[in-house]
Design brief:
Trna Endonuclease, Chain: A, domain 1; 91 residues; 3 helices; four-stranded mixed beta sheet; 31% strand
Length: 91
Amino acid sequence: MRNDVGLLWENYMVSERIKKQGYDGIMVNNYFWRTYDRQEIDWIEERGGTEYAYEFKWSPKKVKIPTAWKKAYPDSHFSVIDSENYLEWLE
């Protein structure tokens, strides 16, 4: 019913992921990414020399990886975290 559910979802995912990293002792660099033409990725983890990009969506839907990201980081991993699969990501 709220018009900011997507923003709340992103905030919740970030805070829970940081907790998981701390509890599990995961050494990682966390970032977000956005270009001047507004392509963006919500959460990036750099672990072991590899980038893992995550897009957070409350409603499950197909999301394409941003073209600029794919071109700049062709060996990175990209996943969509939504209300149906987030527990796997936080476990």
